[in-house]
Write a structure and sequence with these properties.
Elements (H helix, E strand, L loop, with lengths): L1 H5 L4 H13 L4 H8 L3 H9 L6 H10 L12
Helix pairs in contact: 3-4
């Protein structure tokens, strides 16, 4: 179970977060400042598939009303 969690591919979910942010016309810099993180860190989550911390993940999907069940599949 632990290994499967470590292999989660965040790319599609990161893209969904970026799309939702852009749809609301929020810049990466604005959102990063609101969240207290660097714009580079947010970019890594959105475009490079870097897994954010769990609290950040929850903030992002809640803020943009993203349903994660479509991105999480049994491995």
């Amino acid at each position: 179970m632990r290994e499967a969690a470590g292999n989660f591919d965040f790319m599609e979910l990161g893209q969904a977060i970026m799309d939702a942010r852009e749809k609301q016309r929020i810049t990466r810099e604005e959102l990063a400042e609101e969240l207290g993180i660097s714009a580079r860190h947010l970019q890594a989550a959105e475009k490079e598939g870097q897994n954010p911390s769990f609290p950040l993940f929850i903030q992002l999907v809640t803020m943009f009303h993203i349903f994660v069940d479509q991105y999480i599949q049994a491995m």
